[in-house]
């Protein structure tokens, strides 16, 4: 990740605290500011979004199968998150704007 210059957004699904700690440390030691954002939605909404996603249809069942793991990991992720965004009633654009506004405040 030494090639990163300026702000970068990394979308990563992490189920364990150890992997997250390593990634955060490696980014931080290279001088990158880290804003840990938890994007969440009610489970019925998540299921509907996954089932309606045509671009990742081949991964649909795997994504649905992982919902319990995400629910289980949510508590530790939320404790470590710098920002939690409930996306249940937001458009992708609204979510992106909110995250960017928060990130910009921290990096400026």
UniProtKB/TrEMBL annotation:
Gene3D superfamilies named in the record: P-loop containing nucleotide triphosphate hydrolases
InterPro entries, per the entry: P-loop_NTPase
Protein's name according to its UniProt entry: Uncharacterized protein
Lineage, opening ranks: Bacteria, Bacillati, Actinomycetota, Actinomycetes, Propionibacteriales
């Amino acid at each position: 990740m030494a090639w990163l210059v300026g702000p970068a957004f990394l979308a990563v699904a992490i189920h364990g605290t150890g992997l997250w700690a390593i990634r955060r440390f490696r980014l931080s030691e290279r001088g990158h500011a880290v804003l840990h954002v938890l994007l969440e939605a009610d489970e019925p909404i998540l299921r509907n979004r996954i089932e309606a996603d045509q671009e990742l249809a081949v991964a649909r069942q795997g994504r649905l199968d992982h919902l319990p793991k995400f629910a289980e990991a949510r508590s530790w992720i939320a404790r470590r998150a710098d920002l939690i965004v409930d996306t249940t009633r937001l458009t992708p654009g609204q979510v992106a704007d909110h995250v960017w506004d928060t990130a910009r405040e921290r990096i400026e």
